[in-house]
Write a structure and sequence with these properties.
Largest sheet: 7 strands, mixed
Number of domains: 1
Number of helices: 9
Strand content: 15-25%
Radius of gyration: 17 Å
Helix content: 25-40%
CATH topology: Rossmann fold
Structural class: alpha/beta
């Protein structure tokens, strides 16, 4: 069973190729985090528009995030928040890692470190060497690195971060552990794959009786009042959590 394989959960009213920013959930994000209105500068009218150098090469990388243009979100968030220390867990082929690295390059500062099990992951994975080659081919080696490591052990290696992205076959337990280990360390934003009702119903979540994410988000909101949390619904969905003081800077 391929635990990262994404079933087609496209809504009839929101087919693949429709930008995530046309969904009402994006308006909800902006209402909860008004500072993120600045994202719209980087969100074009369609998914064919190139907004930064090297985007064509990054768009060639395989990722379900491309279905609704989430690469624009990774780039735009990084441009708007201008994080310095960034970490990603769950690199796969490197699409989101490279999107953030391109923004750090354009910000002229910052670095993102990606961690993945790579060949040690028993399901769908990418070879570590291929990701490193891809980073170099995109000319982003000064802004991005990738390492083989277990994400759940890495919180002991960092005192603080600005930006954290987690995509490691997420389920409700993943969300709980991320906030337990990282909420006190991340200064700006945590992005987690998943968070919509559709995402909670993917085959492997049901088959392996994984705890759903949606109710856990409600719990996290209640126990972490210093974080503002909103989920972008288009599948596979992304949950954006921002520290309150990051919204007023």
């Amino acid at each position: 069973m391929n635990l990262r394989e994404q079933a087609d959960h496209s809504r009839p009213d929101f087919p693949v190729g429709t930008p995530f920013w046309e969904d009402p959930s994006f308006r909800t994000l902006l209402e909860r985090c008004p500072k993120l209105t600045a994202l719209t500068v980087y969100l074009p009218s369609d998914l064919k528009t190139i907004v930064f150098d090297g985007q064509t090469d990054i768009q060639a990388v395989q990722s379900s995030y491309k279905d609704h243009g989430y690469g624009y979100l990774f780039y735009a968030l990084t441009r708007v928040l201008r994080p310095i220390r960034c970490v990603e867990f769950g690199v796969l082929q490197g699409f989101s890692l490279l999107s953030v690295a391109a923004a750090l390059r354009d910000n002229r500062g910052g670095n993102i470190q990606g961690f993945d099990l790579f060949e040690d992951y028993p399901y769908q994975h990418e070879n570590e060497a291929d990701v490193l080659d891809r980073i170099k081919a995109c000319g982003l080696q000064n802004w991005a690195q990738a390492y083989r490591a277990d994400a759940f052990q890495m919180h002991e290696s960092f005192d603080n971060l600005d930006y954290l992205h987690v995509d490691i076959s997420n389920n409700g337990d993943t969300y709980r552990r991320v906030f337990e280990h990282w909420a006190s360390k991340v200064r700006q934003v945590i992005i987690l794959e998943g968070g919509s009702d559709d995402r909670d119903q993917v085959e492997w979540m049901i088959k392996y009786e994984k705890p759903p994410i949606v109710p856990v988000i409600h719990d996290i909101r209640r126990t972490n009042p210093d974080w503002t949390i909103a989920t972008l619904e288009p599948f596979p969905s992304l949950t954006v959590a921002m520290r309150s003081d990051a919204l007023t800077g």
